[in-house]
Structures are given as structure tokens and as C-alpha cells.
Amino acid sequence: MKLSFSAQDEQFREEVAEWLQANLTGEFEKLKYRGGPGDEHTYPEERKIWEKNLAAGGWTCVGWPKEYGGRGCSIEQQVIFFEEYARAGAPGRVGHIGEGLTGLTLIAFGTEAQKQKYLPGIVAGTELWCQGYSEPGAGSDLANVKTKARFDEARGKWLISGQKVWTSLAHESDFCFVIARTDPDSVAHKGLGFFLLKMDQPGVEVRPIEQMTGTSEFNEVFFDEAECDADDIVGEPGDGWKVAMGLLGFERGVSTLGQQMQFQNEFDAVVSLARDNGAASDPVIRQRIAHAHTELKIMRYNAMRMLSGQSGSDGGLQKEALIYKLYWASWHRSLGELAMDVMGPECEILPEGPYALSPLQSMYLFVRSDTIYGGTNQIQRNIIAERGLGMPKEPRGTL
């Protein structure tokens, strides 16, 4: 794992920093440090415009191959991009699911026709995506999905019916990738398909899920014979599990660096508050801040280590990647608790009208979900034990 950067990489850093400094002004000035988890409701339309501005400057999909509209940046340059994006306080990305998940999955598993159809809109920042994985009875257990896909020969369409839940930004998205069962008699990971589905059509209903923060990043999505073109299944019917697992490899991949961008900004806000209100003079608070800082650095180094060991274009990662979700979710939850202790009694009151939560209060409430979505901490420990350490599977008792 490389912990230093070449002269060429440092020149690239200057280019990124200069562009961000020149562009995070005027109409985009108010977007600085906004739009992350728990704050996703702020300036949604303005952040969509920012996404297009990033694209115009050539700063979307920086790690994608050049033939698909990316910059073809090395891992080192991608690290630099996310570091400078964080340092500049650039806003949370509304296109991160398309860029970090959909696009990379299509590059690895999609047909050339699918790549030509969908990748340009992601690169341009004009088409946003959401993820149709979890269901009421299939959260961490993705192989238990019940959503069905049947092919209508007369119409030449796949018809999708079922329900997805905890679908981030579904209300803002143009498309959704959906795991559905193509074989109604199949069980577990067999008989699944991976579909690319347009959201704005009859048969698709999005219902917001109001969170403790009072906002609704997550949604329920209901499909009632929603149409999907015959050539909008990635791979063959039955390949859905393979494609879905490849996508999860990308979720643990370079997109994690963008997540750490947000973590660093939140940590800096906690430190700044501790200095301003005197909490930093408390030795226990100082120790907790030092501990959080150390663990955040470890998170970065481990991310670089696992990316250095990435095995190929299919998103495969070394076993070190198995610990990442458990690590960051637990760290982020602890940061929320630290933020409230730094705020002191003021954490229980709202500062002024219209009495909206402060960014740190929103962060504290939102991070309660971190150890649940994307695989609960308990599931993550099972994955580490079984896939990483080769231990026997957890016994499954019957009632």
C-alpha cells in the first residue's frame, strides 16, 4: 500500500483544489458542507445543478475508464480527488449511487448497448439512480427477496411486482436497479435477475419514510407490473446474485473514499465546537476526540490497503474489505455520541426559529441507522467470521 504520492499526483491535487476553489462560489457557496447523511434534504435542486457543473468540469466518474466518459484516474488520484473535495467543503453528491454503483456494475457486467444507453447520463450528472435491494423480509438477507419479474412475450417486456424498502433518494431518482426473482419456484440466491428500471412510469409508487431527523432520505418503493425493457436485465435470468455481489464489492470500493470525505467534515465540526465552547478543556473529551481522530485515520489507511488489493474489474476485493462496514458504522455512531457530549445541555434544544435540527443534531440521530442499513453489525460479524475466517456458519434454530 502506497502512503505517499508522486510529483505527478501532487500536480493533479493542485488541479483539483484550484477547480474547487474557483467553482464553490456564487450560487454554490451556500452548498459548502451541506447535503450529507441526515442533511440530504438541503438544497436538493441546487445540488443537482452542482452535479452537472462537476460534469462540465470533467469531475464526475474520475476513476471510470476514459472510453466510458471517465478520467481513468489511478487509485492514488482518486484518493486525492476525494481528499480535496472534502477539504474544500464541497456538498454531498446526489449522483453517488449511479457513479459508484450502477456505472461500475454496468462496466463490469453490462452489454455494450446498456453501457451506451445508461453511462452517458451518469457521467453528465443528468440521470440519478437508486438501489432496489432491501425488502420488508429481506434486509440483511438479500437472498430472501420476494419481488418478482415475469417476461411478457406479447409486450416484449419484463414486468416487475413487489416492494422495496429503505431506498435512499428514490424520490429524487430517475432510475433504479432492482433485484427480483425471475424463477417463482427458486429459493435463496438462485433464480434472481438484476434489472434496470425507469422510475417515472405507471406501476411505480414511492412513499417517504420519515426519520427521527424529520426528513425522508429513505423510501418505500412499490412495483405493480412496472415495465422493464427486454434488454434491461444485466446478465441472464438467474445471474442476479452474481451481479448483486459484484456491485456490493464496488460499494466497499472507491466510493468509500467519498464517504470518508463526509466523516472528516463532521469530525472537524465537532473539534471546532469543542474549541469554541470550552469542551476541549475536559481531559475526557480531549481523549475521546483523539481516539476518534486516530480511528478515522485507521479507516483511511485500511481503505487504501483494501483498494490496493482490489482483484479486478468485477469489483472483487481482498478479505480486508469485510471489516469495513462494521468499522465505519460503529465509528460514525460513536462520533454522533461524542458530538452530543461536546454540545452539552444545548444538544437537547433547538437554537432558533424555524427550530430545525442543527447539522450535528441531525447527524447524531441519523447515525443510529448506520449500524442497520447495508447489513447490520451482527450480520457483518457473521460475514467476517464465515467468509473471512472460515468459521462454521451460525446455527439456525427453529421455533
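(ticket continues) Second input and output from the same batch:
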Amino acid sequence: MKLTLKQTRAIDFLEDDVTNDLLFGGGAGGGKSAFGCYWQIKRRLKYPGTRGLIGRAVLKTLKDTTLNTFFQIASLQGLKSNYHYIYNAQRGIITFPSTESEIILKDLATYPSDPNFDELGSLEITDAFVDETNQISKKAWDITKSRIRYKLDDYGLIPKMMGSCNPAKNWVYGDFYKPYKDGSLPGNRQFIQALLSDNPHISKHYRDNLLQLDKNSLERLLHGNWEYDDDPAALMTFNKIMDVFTNTFVLPGEKYITADIARFGSDNTVIGVWSGLRLIRIVTIAKNKVTEAADKIKELCNTYSVPISNVIVDDDGVGGGVVDILGCEGFVNNSSPLPNKETKEPENYNHLKSQCYFKMAELVNKNELFIEDHTFRDIIIQELEQVKQHNMDKDGKKQIIPKDKVKELLGRSPDYSDMIMMRMWFELITRHNFFTF
């Protein structure tokens, strides 16, 4: 196997004493999967008795795709099946008799029966390659990485984990591509953009096939465009999301405060101060007590002259404690949507949270919302891009993608978009002429 220039750069990072995480990402045909398999073979032959892992979101897909690539690369290296290496399909293990090393094939999908990946708990590996990393959760990546400790000291190695993927607006974008683009990647993490044009060994017909794809797929897979996202399920376009930070013409108005309270101290408490539909200040408190969150909201009420009747806090979990202390409005995510003003009947949403997110998307797409505080701009953009309709092809009530799924994609809770979404409650109350006492 002749390495491309990009693959040569990648192998340098994977053999240094600094890099722990490498994402080899970009368009299709850049040689990502082939390189990952090559690296795993090289490590198993170079370091006797070690154990690697090749993972993917679905084991069947791994065996149908990545494993076939492994066989091709092994052949290019002059390795013969059942002699230089032995594949045990039942156990999902590839062994190398000459070095007594092995590669374990693993399913890294998130299953409700094993949300914490306890199945990986007793695993000990030397390194790992995850193909199509964008298809697994950040937690799956982190848990797999935590298992890298086997025989490292024997060879003076450091933990090494490599992922491959095509452009995706989820946690790999936030952890790798965005910091790479901004020049803020940590020293132990690297990103290499691999495109079809970087691979001189690919068939000349491959590019012609890519040119037949739809516009969204063409941008992602041929041009490696990480910013392009034309998902029909998205409630807001990327351009309109960007506009919310420049819509200075949105007029100020009545003051409000919305707050998403950290659940059991695990997430951030995010508080927003509004003047009409202008988000003028965002405050984040990490792992705070209920009383601290309540005190901060009281302080902001005094500073910006916001009456308690214009404050809303999520009433799920510990947020209910803040509602009790302040005597403010409580936002119950799964409560029934607000009724239609004319018919007095509930609107066609599965719950209030979906109704408010659809309303927020409507205002964003009409350029009627302005985020004046840019402190958390990049985080907000990422979260708003994940606001999508769930099961859009099915009949029934309109709903957004569940929060747990969004957390998997982002690798964190969408606290900022939830805080913004809650501002819509006041808009819906006014629109529906609905009052609380």
C-alpha cells in the first residue's frame, strides 16, 4: 500500500509521543477507512502481544464494509488469510499468529439496554480505530478511549485513538473540525482533511459517480464541506441561523428572563435576559446549587428591571426548586401544547417543547430574533442546527428530535437552545390570549 501525503501526515501523528486523538475526516474516497485498517495491521505486527480495536456504530455494517477493506489492505501488504492472520467470524476477532496480537471488532452503537457502555467495561486494548466516527456518540468514543491501557508501558506507548468520518454537524464538528479551523485544537488532538483529490489511487470513475449526487451529498462527500447542511428535517436554514447574530434591526421591548437549570448538577445552568426578542445577555453557571441559580436570577431581575411574572424556568428536575423559590412561571417540557386562539383546541404538537421550538424556528426564519450577546455564538449555532423535525415522513403530531438524541449528536446537552426556546412561551401566551394566575 502506497500512502498518500495526507496518510503520511496521519501516520506521523499516530507514531509520535504527543497525539492521543486523530480524526481523519473529509470527503468520500480520501482513503480514510483503508488507512485506519493499515494502521491497525502495522501496530499488531510491530508490537507483539498487543490488542487493537476496530469499531463502528453497527457491527453488521462494519463486517460488510470496513472488514472487507481490511482484507484488501492486508492483501496489498502481502498478508495471507489463515496464515499471516486468522479471522474468527463467530468471535469477531482477527489474530496474528506470528506476533500473538489481535484486533477486536466492536459494535459501538448506543443501546437503551446499555446506555453507559458497560459491555466495554472489562475490555483492555492498546489502541483503537473507529470507522465513520460521526455515526457514534461522543460517549461511545470516550468510553472506548478509556479502555486503552493494555501493554502501553511494555512498549513505552501512549493511548492512541483514530477516527474516520465524512463531514457532519455533530460532536466531531465541535471537538475536531471547528477547533482545527479556528486554530484552537489541543496539542494532543489532530485533524486531517482528506478529500478525493488527495487520493491518486482511486478509480477515475469514482468522481463521476459522486457528481451524480444531490447538492447536499455533493458538497459533503466530494468537496468535504463541513458547513453545508441541507437536511430537509431541519427547522431553520444555516444562513438564517447565522442571521440571528446580525439582526440588529429587531426592536427592543418588554424585558424577560428564561433559564434552563442544570439537571442534578450535571449540565450548565443557562440564563438569558431579553429585551423584546433581543437576547441581550447570556449567563452560564456550572454545577450550581438551586439556591445559587435562584439568587443569580434575582440579581438579573434587579439589574435589568425584569418582573418575576416575566421570568420562566424549566420545571423539570431540579428546575422545579428554582420555580418554587422565585414564584415564577414553570416550563414543563412534556406538557400539552397551548391551545389555538380561535378554536381553543390544542395545536398539532406532541408537547409544549415542540410547539415552542417550531415557533422559535418560525421567528428565526423570518429574521425576527436577534442574539446580541455573542459570548456563546459557536455553541448556539451548533445547537440550533440540531433543531429538526422528528419522524417528518410520518403522519401525526409534529415533534422535534428528542433531547437524548441531540445530546448523543452534540456530546452535550443543548442548554442554550433550550433557554432560547423557552422565550417562545411568552410569545405563544400573547398570541393565544392565554393567561395564568
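Agent notes: The first strand starts at residue 21 and ends at 26. Residues 238-432 form a domain with the Nucleotidyltransferase; domain 5 fold (CATH 3.30.420.240). Closing as not reproducible unless the customer responds.
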